[in-house]
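Researcher: Sequence recovery benchmark, item below. Answer with residues only.
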């Protein structure tokens, strides 16, 4: 079941974010992610509309939408990867927020880039993300 995040979900959401970043974006050192967890918790999450996927009273993924037009985060507990949770969260957001949607994905994260391409997103520009120094794709897609 997908539902709006509550304050009680926050610690679990940050745990999922950290675990998924460490496992799925291992080209960036683990300490980078650990240093940024508090910023995500205190700055990024409060600026977003966050929806969680819950199965059996356990949150196992989330999506954060900024300004109704940008997917700021999509993360699934690594133990639950390849179960359709990320796709379900994306489809939920694309159904809820109509029009052109943007997101950013690290160029080295082939799994994520290919996932977004399968959903109809295209790379519109490439930049170097300032803090990590990694190449990042700005991708765009349209909800129908």
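Model:
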């Amino acid at each position: 079941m997908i539902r709006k995040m509550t304050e009680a979900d926050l610690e679990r959401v940050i745990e999922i974010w950290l675990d998924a970043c460490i496992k799925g974006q291992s080209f960036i050192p683990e300490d980078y992610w650990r240093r940024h967890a508090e910023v995500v918790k205190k700055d990024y999450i409060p600026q977003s509309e966050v929806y969680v996927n819950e199965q059996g009273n356990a949150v196992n993924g989330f999506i954060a939408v900024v300004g109704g037009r940008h997917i700021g985060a999509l993360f699934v507990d690594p133990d639950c990867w390849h179960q359709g949770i990320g796709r379900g969260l994306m489809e939920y957001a694309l159904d809820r927020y109509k029009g052109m949607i943007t997101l950013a994905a690290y160029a080295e994260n082939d799994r994520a880039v290919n996932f977004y391409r399968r959903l109809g997103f295209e790379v519109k520009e490439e930049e170097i993300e300032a803090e990590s120094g990694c190449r990042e794709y700005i991708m765009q897609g349209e909800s129908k």
